[in-house]
Amino acid sequence: MKNILLILLLSWSLGLFSQEKKYWEEGLLNWSDFQKPTISHDPVSSFEYRLNYKAQYTKIDDTRLNRYMADAYMIKTSSSIEEENRTWQYLKYYQLVFNLLEIERRALQEDLYLTRARYASQVVQEHRIRLKNTLEDLAQDTDKGNHVAALYLWENKIAALLEHYAPVQTLPALRKSHFAYGLVLGLGSSIYTGSVNDYFSPGILINFGFNISYKDFTFFAILMAGNNKVVQDYKKWEDWHIGGVAMADLSIGYPIFDGPKHKLTPFIGYGFSEFSRTDVKNEENNLRMIDPNWLIGLAFDYKLIKTIDTYRIKQYKETLLRFRLSMIKTDFSPDLQGYTLNFTIGFGNLGTLVKIPRKK
User: Do residues 159 and 186 share a domain?
Assistant: First the structure.
């Protein structure tokens, strides 16, 4: 008995995984798509299908799309029709059924874009019920394909609906928020001019940046930290001692170019430069110089990846490399002045919340 149950379970499993599917994009139906053999106690015909969804990552053009994808197909191995009923009316009728399945899949795709993840299963069930009701109306109006005039009326109606709903391989329309946000982490170097260059070597810096955008304006908050060396004695700063460097600034920028892959943004702001040296053995020997001043600069973004995420937080993201050049006046004392040129290369993510409007 156990062996028989095992064989039945195995046969059922093989049948489940051996289902042969047909998707709407593969072309019009033909009689070879109805692969289930008919026997005397079966109905005259059957058209089996599935309407579901799954999480999917795909790439369309130059944009990554994370979404719940509506999935619909005919199950060929479970669909059948008797030989004597294989007429052009029946084939047209089942083609209309197949077209309605595709329309419902496209409508479901739009609703999945608008739906929060936890409601996705509920939305799919609603579309299954709606499709079932529509197919019942089609069967009743056309007498399951026997009423030719009604078939043509439904054919025109369905053709208009197919044109109304966009195919799956298109990016959803987005309504972006006016606000955007981002983080950038990178490395860079500072080069000094004037008398500052006479006493201190260029600094190696770690760069951390945060920016908020409103429409086309971007507000940058930058923090850089690293070290440099004293190249000759300056007051209590002794030759070849390693000191700390810290720089921070707040600035506002407006892009002069923003293309699909590149963005160029000049900015102006206010920041400070700090040189310091810490003596852990004797705090009295700690040294610190700080100077606030205006700065100008230029940020160049190279957009590596664009991503639309629709099944978690609905947002548009850009992963980028940022090249940033800034110049700030350094005026520590009358005999220690110049300009500091900061150049950094950073890797970052910028994002903005989006809404996906319902298609009219």
Answer: no
